[in-house]
Amino acid sequence: MALPSGIQVFSGNLVALAIPLSSGTFDFVGLGQTATIAQNAGLVAASGISDNRVKQWVPGMATVSVSVTDMAVRHRSYEYLGLAPQASFLDLLSMTPFDIHILDLTSMPATAVTSKTTASLTPIKSIIGCLYSDGTLTINKHEPLTISATFNGLDVSGTLIASS
């Protein structure tokens, strides 16, 4: 079924790296193109006495990781927050916990999307307490540095359902 003519569609999932502030808000320090969230319930096999077959699965340690592609990090944001590293910003991403938020921008007009308006949005999915695990740094001429990386997080919140 085709859309009627004259209707504009604005798709707006925003993948944002954010440092939590003491005020309960967050400050964006980077943006990514794609986020792939992997959660592992950490189930462990349990068997009976002298029986090597699995009888049930019991909870173990749950883990969460998120892979972000083509992420641009604003180094100046880290300096503004007083977190400027002596080494590279990859070192900073592996030492300073941050959150990755998935924001739904479809609830606002495209012309209203700015760093100030997006900071007031409630994330539809958040990965809390992330640290850099591994990744690649891409350097192209006339373009900002981008990272494709995997981050380990402490917890996930949100439903991926935007409130209207």
Write a structural description.
10% of the residues lie in helices and 46% in strands. The chain has one domain (13-158). It has a 6-stranded antiparallel β-barrel. Strands 4-5 form a two-stranded antiparallel sheet. It is elongated, with a radius of gyration of 20 Å. The longest helix is centred in the middle third of the chain and has 7 residues, at 89-95. 19% of the residues are buried. The mean pLDDT is 76. With 164 residues, it is mainly β.
| End-to-end separation | 25 Å
Largest sheet: 6 strands, antiparallel, barrel
Oligomer kind: single chain
What Rg is obtained from the alpha carbons, in whole angstroms? 20 Å
Strand tally is 10
User: Per DSSP, what share of the residues sits in E-state strands of 2 or more residues?
Assistant: over 45%
Strand order of the largest sheet: 1-2-6-9-8-7
Shape summary: elongated
What's the helix-strand series?
Answer: EEEEEEHHEHEEE
The whole-number mean of residue pLDDT values reads 76
Broad structural category: mainly beta
> What is the count of helical runs?
3
What layout of secondary structure does this protein have?
Blueprint: E1 13-20, E2 26-32, E3 34-40, E4 44-47, E5 54-58, E6 63-73, H1 75-80, H2 89-95, E7 98-104, H3 115-118, E8 125-138, E9 146-153, E10 155-158
Antiparallel strand pairs: 1-2, 1-7, 2-6, 3-6, 4-5, 6-9, 7-8, 8-9, 8-10
